[in-house]
C-alpha cells in the first residue's frame, strides 16, 4: 500500500476521532436536554455505553416527570451494567423498579438488579456475604415474577451460587481435617451433611467424617477410645447405607477394618487391666 495513502487514512481517522470528541464535549456543555437525550440514545445503540451514561446522568433529573425520564433511568442503569460497574448498576436498577413499579421495564430491571448482585459474588475462598445477597435477590425476583422469561436463567444462577456456598462450607470443614483437628472436622462434616444433603460434596464429606472420627479415636486417651471407635463404626454403617457404590468405598472399608482392629486392641487392654485389678 502507498505510504502516502496510508498516512492520509490515519490522519483522517485521527481527525474524525478528534471531531467526535469535540462534538461530545459540546454535548456535555449544551443546555439542550432533548438533543442530549437523543445523542445518548445514539451512543447507546452504538454500544458506546460510557458516553451514553455520561449524557444520561446529566439529563435524568431534567427529564423527571416526562415519559422519556423512565427510559433514561433504565438505560443509565444498564449502561453501568454493560461497563461492568455492578455496584452502581445494582443501585440504579433497584432505584428504577422501586420508582416505577408498574413500568413495563420493572421486571427486567429487577432481574438485572439480581444479576448485578450475582456478578459481585466472589470466588468460593472469599467471604460469601455477596453470594447470599445475590441468592436472596434472585429468589425475591422469582417470587414476584414466577413465569418470567428470565426465570430459567435466574434459577441457573441460584444453582451456581448455591454450589459455591457448598464448596465454601466443604472446604472449610476439610481444612480442619487437613490441619489434623479431627474432632472439629467431625463436627464440621456432620453439620455440612445436615445442612447440604444434596450437595455434590456430601459423599466425600461422609467419608472424611468417618476417617476423621477414626483418627480422632487414635489420638484419644485410652478411656475414650472405645467410645470413639464405636462412633466411627456407626459412621461407616451410615456411609455404606447411603453410598453403597461410592468411589470411596474401598477406602471406607479399610478405615472400618482398621477401626475394628483398634477396638480389638482396646478390648484386650481393658480385659488385661480388669484381670490385673482383680489379682491385686
UniProtKB/TrEMBL annotation:
InterPro entries referenced in this protein's UniProt entry, alphabetically: BamD, BamD-like, TPR-like_helical_dom_sf, TPR_rpt
Domain of life: Bacteria
Domain Outer membrane lipoprotein BamD-like as annotated: residue spans: 34-186
Keyword vocabulary terms for this entry: Cell outer membrane, Membrane, Signal
Cited PROSITE patterns: PROKAR_LIPOPROTEIN
Cited Pfam families: TPR_6, YfiO
Name recorded for this polypeptide: Outer membrane protein assembly factor BamD
Source organism per UniProt: Pontibacter ruber
